């Protein structure tokens, strides 16, 4: 999808499908009636979420506080608390019913990651400048790293979980050798990759 408008419509449709599916499964779990997210709501949601990471508060209720000491007006003027929580609960980027289930998180995030790479990496002009990317165990993937290396000449490294199915079996099935305390590590490298 090259049109940002269509990307938002995609997220709106997948979120609505997931919400309707969950509401049918557990009708008593919803305190307020569901309505399909609007384009402005879906566009505002990531910005508010990022802002919550920048402007930290001890409780999510305080983001919409009217207390002069705690007030951050952008939150209450953009999305009310219940609607933000409702979108957060049902936000989806893929078809949860028809998608294959090999790597559930990566399947759900694949569309988002592809768009992230296209919009941020390609648009940020960081390729071929010697940067190294670092990921946590949710995004560590040899295929992703290989794509970064082959297409952008950008190196990457990250931590892994032993349960990750996309990693070579000879690495993940072996009991770690000479690793006795927390913090010891093993690494793998293939040529320049």
Automatic annotation (TrEMBL):
It comes from the Eukaryota. It holds the Pfam family DDE_Tnp_1_7. Residues 34-120, 126-177 form the PiggyBac transposable element-derived protein domain. This is PiggyBac transposable element-derived protein domain-containing protein. It comes from Mytilus coruscus (Sea mussel). The lineage of its organism: Eukaryota, Metazoa, Spiralia, Lophotrochozoa, Mollusca.
């Amino acid at each position: 999808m090259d049109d940002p408008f269509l990307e938002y419509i995609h997220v709106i449709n997948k979120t609505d499908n997931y919400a309707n599916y969950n509401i049918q499964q557990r009708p008593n779990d919803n305190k307020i009636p569901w309505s399909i997210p609007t384009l402005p709501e879906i566009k505002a949601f990531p910005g508010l979420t990022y802002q919550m990471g920048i402007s930290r508060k001890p409780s999510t209720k305080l983001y919409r506080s009217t207390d002069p000491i705690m007030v951050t007006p952008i939150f209450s003027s953009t999305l009310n608390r219940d609607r933000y929580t409702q979108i957060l609960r049902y936000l989806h980027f893929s078809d949860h019913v028809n998608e294959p289930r090999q790597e559930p998180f990566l399947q759900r995030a694949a569309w988002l990651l592809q768009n992230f790479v296209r919009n941020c990496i390609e648009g940020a002009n960081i390729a071929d400048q010697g940067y190294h990317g670092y990921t946590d165990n949710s995004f560590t993937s040899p295929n992703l790293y290989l794509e970064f290396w082959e297409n952008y000449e950008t190196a990457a490294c990250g931590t892994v979980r032993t349960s990750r199915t996309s990693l070579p079996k000879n690495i993940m099935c072996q009991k770690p050798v000479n690793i006795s305390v927390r913090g010891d590590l093993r690494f793998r490298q293939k040529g320049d990759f």
